[in-house]
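dude i think i finally got it to work??
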Amino acid sequence: MLLKNKGQIGPRFLVYLVGLLVMSLGIVLLITADLGATPWDVLHVGLYYQLGLTIGSWSIIAGVFILAAAALISKELPQVGAFLNMVLIGLFIDAYLLLTFMQTPNGMAGKVAMFSFGIVVYCYGMGLYISAQLGAGPRDSLMIALTAKTGWKVRNVRALMEVAVLTAGWQLGGPVFWGTILLSLAVGPIVGAALPQCQALTDRFLAKLRYKDSFENQMLREKDRGVS
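look at this
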């Protein structure tokens, strides 16, 4: 479902921001659960282990190179939303990791619970930020550019990208475990269910704001007519 009014930049940015906050929380829960992470986060954690800085910093640095590659392939400048996605997710990841209670559970049951909750949070956060329709993130921008350049199917391009990134992250010592395989199987179906729900929620939120603005404008016009 498409948004009926693309001009509601402020409210859509609020939805976008909340979506990125939620998705970043999901990423941190998955990393902290220590049962495996998404391929890109395996790379970010591996770079952190080998070179220092922070996981969020490597998310941003990798995003810069990814956006540059996407721009060179597509010969188009990335959308503003891609830059915001890159910077904000990196900052949010580091902020969540600073929370004192964000610790890996001692038992397997606790790790599985955190990991399972992290998958759901991650997928619904992704659904929320996409529903705002303010542009794709760096990884999706590269996927779109490669798909257009090669003519391959999206799923094949995405699979190739993630296998390459996962391999590099694993070589760097990133957290590859059975959870990584589960993520690759579960994220698609969960996002597929979450996206229409999030889109409907966003559409209702924006529709209410449009109605409120319309009602207030009508009241102002009637007041002006009464004064005149």
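The chain has a mean pLDDT of 84.
im so relieved honestly
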